[in-house]
Hints:
12% helix, globular, mainly beta
Amino acid sequence: EPVYYAAVDSKNLVGLVYPQAEGEQLKYDDATHALSFVRGDTTYRIVGDAQGAPTGMQVIVRGKTTELKLLAEPAEGSLNKVAEAIKAAQ
């Protein structure tokens, strides 16, 4: 089963769903506790703490990084569980 990520805004409108196209995939880095994906020239990184709780999001466009805050409720969950699902899907 593929693993998907959806980002919603403060009005619960979906602004991003990933993956959408063939070949797009989520990657998890155990060392930095970051879930990342690339679309075009933009890299999205969801950073977590050592327990896997999401702490923030970075959007990197052509080398410029913008830090985004996560909404508390939708950010619930564990990046560690996502990493396990990604590994199981491979």
